Fold this sequence. Notes:
Blueprint: H1 15-23, E1 41-43, E2 49-51, E3 92-94, E4 116-118, E5 125-126, E6 139-141, E7 146-149, E8 163-165, E9 170-174, E10 189-192, E11 206-208, E12 213-216, E13 230-232, E14 237-238
Amino acid sequence: MDHARVGDDSERETTWARARDDFTTTNHEAMNQNSGDKGFGRLNQKRRFTIYSQVIPSTFTELRKLKKPLIKDSSLIGEIPETIGNLAELEELDLSNNSLTGTILSGLFLLKNLTTVYLYKNHLFGPIPQPIEALKMEVIDLSENNLTGTISDDFGTLTELSLLSLFSNQLSREIPESISHLPSLAYNHFTGKVPEYLCANGGLIGIVAFDNNLSGELPNSLGNCSSLLIVRVNGNRLSGSISAGL
């Protein structure tokens, strides 16, 4: 992964896309259960899932043992079924780069086995649901939608979280102090200061928060964060000096 200096605009369009790609799991099977009799699609002999419908039917969530539905880049439309919370064994969900609308349903982040959610590049709107009780979450990418509201303090309870990407939404207000891994927040309306203890867990990789309304100084503690590779905070109202370690 390339290093990016504070305020450098030369790779603005691709920086966090690269970070996202580094986190993307590439060796998962498309489905863990054959759903050919549900009218939505089916697995072929190479375990690839073929889509027969552009709308996710409500019967999709009757596949109670489904663990990893990875259905990105499939021209899906409509809404995510309200019964998504019935998939108690769900571990990973990838519906990215489709044309899904509606809200993110509250039942999704109540699933105890959930570790990965990719919903980026859709047309989802409304707030990020609360509470968040999926404490095994490692990757959440909700970027490039039309989400509004605030970031919940509940994200601070996700101790396994390594990537939280929320850029290109309409989120606002201050970033919760409880978040020890700053998400990708570019193209939003956040205010206030950058939280002090972002690298408290020692795994902070990137700060991508350009084009907001953040103010104050960058925390000096970031200069001692050995895992930090990307800092993109241009387009804010930050002041003061930059730590020598950055």
